[in-house]
Amino acid sequence: MYGIFIIFLFYTLGTVISMVMGELIPGSVIGMVLLFVSLLAGWVKPEKVRQVAIFLTGNMALFFVPVGVGLMATTHYFSGALPAIVTTIVISTLLVMVSVGWIQQLLERKK
After folding, report:
1. Is residue 70 part of a domain?
2. How far apart are CA 43 and CA 36, in angstroms?
3. 109 in any annotated domain
């Protein structure tokens, strides 16, 4: 229960900070960064949230089902923008793959 509390606490803190900032950055992202910093600083012990984190990441696919259904139900709204959407998806995927590969190579050189 403590792990769930900690994760939801940081999510709530991130959401509040996001609202105060005018929702420029999503609250979930801010909360995740705050949790990461807290784990690095030692304020939150990894073993306290590990079990909940493993459960959530193991069932992550379930979180995408509502989004997928929503997209299928509203395709008529953005069907005219399909080329722009596909282009954005391809470019962002390539950028993520290149940046992750580059960071991985940097980390392997440090070993």
Report:
1. no
2. 10
3. yes
- Nearest C-alpha neighbor of 17 from the set 35, 44, 42: 35
pLDDT string in tens for the chain (111-residue length) = 899 999 999 999 999 999 999 999 999 999 999 999 999 999 999 999 999 999 999 998 898 899 889 888 888 888 888 899 899 999 999 999 999 999 999 999 987
Asked whether residue 19 falls in the same domain as residue 53, the answer is yes
- Helical residues (DSSP H) of 1-111, grouped into ranges: 2-20, 27-41, 46-58, 60-73, 75-78, 82-110
What's the whole-model pTM score? 0.64
d(CA 103, CA 109): 10
Please give the radius of gyration of the chain, using alpha carbons only, rounded to the nearest integer: 18
Residue 6's contacts (CB-CB under 8 Å, 6 or more residues apart) are: 35, 44, 48, 49
Segments forming the whole domain that contains residue 38: 1-65
